[in-house]
Amino acid sequence: VDLDTARQELEEFIPHVRNISDSSIKKMAGRDLTRFKEFKKQGIAVKFGRFTQKENEQIQKNVEEFLSLTGIDSAEKLLFTSRYPEDKDTIHRLKTEHHFCEKISEGIPRPWRLIYYRARKMFDPNNYKGRYTKEEKEKLKKYQALHGNDWKKISELMSRSNLSVAMKYSEIKSAINYGPWTEEETQKLMNAVKEVLRRKLQSENPSSFFSLEQSNRELWIDREKLYQPLPWTEIETKVGSRYWRQCKQKWNSILTSKVTRGQQLYRGTNGLKAKINLIKRLHETKAEDASEVNWDELTQAIGDVPRAYVQSKFYRLKVSFVPLWKRKTFSEIIDYLYEKKLPELEEKL
């Protein structure tokens, strides 16, 4: 299919598809579209977010079966072929002949790229090496000075995963503050996020950016924009004194405060309605595990709030009303709330 058609067809399964590059759309059209349609026929929705234990086991099974099929002698060779230059050509040929893309993603309703990244994380022997020693941190700084942000090269030199070295360098590259956020730091974070969102809005829709500039109200706090992934390493650089994970956590707390400010969501009649709606919606998902729940969709059950807010409300419900909740599975907790607590709340309402 052509690019526009592919994007249009993928939009049914991936709501944020308009933010994906053309080259990625082409790959997804080849690797994902047919799979997604097949899952749809079976009544299975495409998933994002944290992988479940069941999905991890399926990836393990898919990798082991592919190794058995091809005779490749380790998952590391299969998934990190560049580490074995002498076997590279043979492995690439075997992967092509035996349809590696299809086999690795079998039975998992997610984009192929995410499944592949998850498999690499699971099977990378360099990914579970514990804390960095003082010597390793010094080496990391030295290699970054020599090779810049070529994390693939640096990961090979340090025998750590790409993600591990990139994140660790992000933490140690400057004097990071671990105490409470100062007013100045918080303002820097707000300005950095605002700048990123303005730039994004301007590139997507110059006319709306112009009207936004004319307003002195905080119209830039737009739910759809704020919930999109943000370039945290760029924001980290602008803040200067915090690493990216701290910036992300702080922004989420600011966002929760802003979106819920002035809303009496959990008081009186509104509070009862919110609890009732949340329990009903959670029961409708038929999820076996919290990671299977699309918390973003559930935000509408209790108001225009961030997913973290909904998750905290669910936590309060189970702690307050479900006896011995720590011993129950996620689905057992939902069933208890639905069968025992929901009728009480509805009667009270």
Would you summarize the structure shown here?
One of its GO terms (biological process) is termination of RNA polymerase I transcription. This protein has 349 residues and is mainly α. The protein is built from 20 helices and no strands.
Descriptive overview:
- The chain is mostly helical.
- It has four domains: 3-123, no CATH class; 134-173, Arc Repressor Mutant, subunit A; 183-260, no CATH class; 268-347, no CATH class.
- It has 20 helices and no strands.
- The protein has helices at residues 3-11, 22-31, 33-41, 53-70, 75-79, 88-97, 100-104, 112-123, 134-147, 151-158, 162-172, 183-204, 206-214, 223-226, 232-239, 244-260, 268-285, 295-302, 307-321, 330-348.
- Helix 10 packs across helix 11 (162-172), helix 12 packs across helix 13 and helix 12 packs across helix 15 (232-239).
- The protein is globular.
- The termini are far apart.
- Mean pLDDT is 80; it is low at 208-224.
- Residues 124-161 form the HTH myb-type domain.
- It comes from Panurus biarmicus.
Mean pLDDT: 80
Helices and strands, in order, run as: HHHHHHHHHHHHHHHHHHHH
The helix count comes to 20
Q: Radius of gyration from the CA trace?
A: 24 Å
User: Into which percentage range does the β-strand content fall?
Assistant: under 5%
Termini distance? 53 Å
Total beta-strand segments: 0
| Total separate domains | 4
Domain HTH myb-type: 124-161
GO biological process, one term: termination of RNA polymerase I transcription
Protein name: TTF1 factor
Pfam families: Myb_DNA-bind_6
